[in-house]
Design brief:
alpha/beta; Peroxisomal Thiolase, Chain A, domain 1; 2 domains; 13 helices; 18% strand; lipid metabolism; lipid biosynthesis; fatty acid biosynthesis
Length: 413
């Protein structure tokens, strides 16, 4: 199997529109969660969101092309182009067939589909846009990234709810390991802040409906007052490459992607398996495939959604896999600052995980004032901490009982 390294990072999310801004705000514990502005929420609707602010798609693609595509695609293109620039990877006829795209999307342009459905029913089908189908389907993020960058290698979209980006990075990992690509643009994108999404998640009681006047306090993973997640939007993208290919072109290697674990709960379509059994198997598989021992892991970027059962089960899963070492490593949930980016979550959290290794700074879990029952690990509460971080696990779990863990390690010769 070929070694896989990370050479570039790109991110746009509720706490910033580029890598430097996002990381600075993450380690400062700054919340990007505020009042929902994407649409006017009706009575009894949750009014809080993690929105990307001051973003202009025309900064990253032709204005005409931007108008043809929806916001989740815009975000994916922006993060991908920033990641390529960060990696100093230029695509041309000499290498574009060897570079692929794997961008996971959980939902796609749900708001656009809502609008076109309304148009069809109230104004007739002749008024529906010819861009409707390519406008909302999830794989258009990967498709348009390919169009915008010239990447002609494997082009895929994994849609596994909130683990979509994690699975896509894992897929890219395996494509390179087996020689099917030399480099992959991989991660996730999401922008599903729409009425139906809020109504659906709201009816499930999955969203936090508290803290209306202090939205920055609403996402509080592992805290006893957690009451649901906050939806966010954005995109996080990595450039991963065959080690020999990256070395030959003189790339600045950020770290090595060494492990990928994936599992299914086979338990319930929304609730995690008791004790986080499925998540534990994903983490164990990430360790096994990487050859890492549990005690070698320094930091876990938790899925940590701020839901009662989700946070508890993940905590139990960490204890199952790491035993006594669970109390010696740092854990944090950056969703406390960004909200839950659904299919894009694993992408931005992989970026944060790698930055923690690069800088030796672990971003905090903000709003953690009183840990919840059985939530007794070191969640890096409220303030970033300095620590020599050699190895990181990044977790992403989703509806349908789907679980992903990625293992990153500082580069070794």
């Amino acid at each position: 199997m070929k070694r896989v390294v990370v050479t570039g990072l790109g991110i746009v999310c509720p706490i910033g529109n580029n890598l430097e801004e996002c990381w600075e705000n993450a380690i400062a514990g700054k919340s990007g969660i505020g009042k929902l502005t994407m649409f006017e929420p009706p009575e009894n609707c949750v009014t809080i969101a993690g929105e990307v602010k001051n973003f202009n798609a025309a900064d990253f693609m032709d204005e005409k092309e931007a108008k043809r595509n929806q916001r989740f695609v815009h975000l994916a293109v922006a993060a991908s182009k920033m990641a390529l620039k960060n990696a100093n990877l230029k695509l041309d006829a000499s290498n574009q067939n060897d570079v692929g795209v794997a961008i996971g999307v959980g939902i796609g342009a749900l708001g656009y589909l809502e609008d076109q459905s309304f148009t069809a029913r109230t104004k007739g089908i002749k008024r529906v846009s010819p861009f409707t189908i390519p406008g909302f389907i999830g794989n258009m993020a990967a498709g348009v990234v390919s169009l915008e960058t010239g990447a002609k290698g494997p082009n895929i979209c994994t849609a596994t709810a909130c683990s979509s980006a994690g699975h896509s990075i894992g897929d890219a990992f395996m494509y390179i390991q087996t020689g099917r690509a030399k480099a992959m643009i991989c991660g996730g994108a999401e922008s599903a802040l729409s009425l139906v999404a809020y109504a659906g998640f709201g009816q499930m009681k999955a969203l936090c409906s508290d803290f209306k006047d202090t939205p920055e306090k609403a996402s509080r993973p592992f805290d006893k007052d957690r009451s649901g997640f906050i939806m966010g939007e954005g995109s996080g993208v990595l450039i991963v490459e065959d080690y020999e290919y990256a070395k030959a072109r003189g790339a600045n290697i950020l770290c090595e992607l060494v492990g990928f674990g994936a599992s299914g709960d086979s338990y319930h379509f929304t609730s995690p398996a008791p004790g986080g059994e499925g998540g534990a198997r994903a983490m164990q598989q990430a360790l096994t495939t990487s050859g890492l021992k549990p005690e070698e892991v320094d930091y876990i970027n938790a899925h940590g959604t701020s839901t009662d059962q989700g946070d508890l089960c993940e905590t139990q899963a960490i204890k199952t896999v790491f035993g006594e070492h669970a109390y010696k490593l740092n854990v944090s949930s950056t969703k406390s600052m960004t909200g839950h980016l659904l299919g894009a979550a694993g992408g931005i959290e992989a970026v944060f995980s790698i930055m923690a290794m690069k800088t030796g700074i672990i971003p905090p879990t903000i709003n953690l004032e009183n840990p919840g029952d059985q939530c007794d690990l070191n969640y890096t509460a409220n303030k970033a901490v300095r620590r020599n971080v050699n190895t990181v696990i990044s977790n992403s779990f989703g509806f349908g009982g789907t679980n992903v863990s990625l293992a990153f390690r500082k580069m070794k010769d």
